[in-house]
Amino acid sequence: MANVTIRNLPEGTFRRLKERAKRNRRSIAQEAAWLLDAALSEAVTPGEAWAEVQRVREMIQSRYGTFSDSTDDIRTDRER
Question: How many Å apart are CA 65 and CA 28, to the nearest integer?
Fold first, then answer.
C-alpha cells in the first residue's frame, strides 16, 4: 500500500477531518484515505454527468412544471 504525506493542510480542514474521523471511529489517516477513495471512485464520464443533469431537470419539471425561456430577455438585456 502506498503512503501519502499532506503538508500545509489548512487548520480548519484538519479540524474537520479530525472530527469526522472521530465520528466514524477511524484514525485521521484512515479517514483521509477513505475520503480520497470515495471521491475518486465517484468520477463520472461527461455522458454520465449529462444524464444526471437531465434526470434532475426532469425531476424539477415534474415537481414544479416548466419555466419560461429567458433567452430572449437575456439577449435584450445584453443589447442595452
Answer: 46
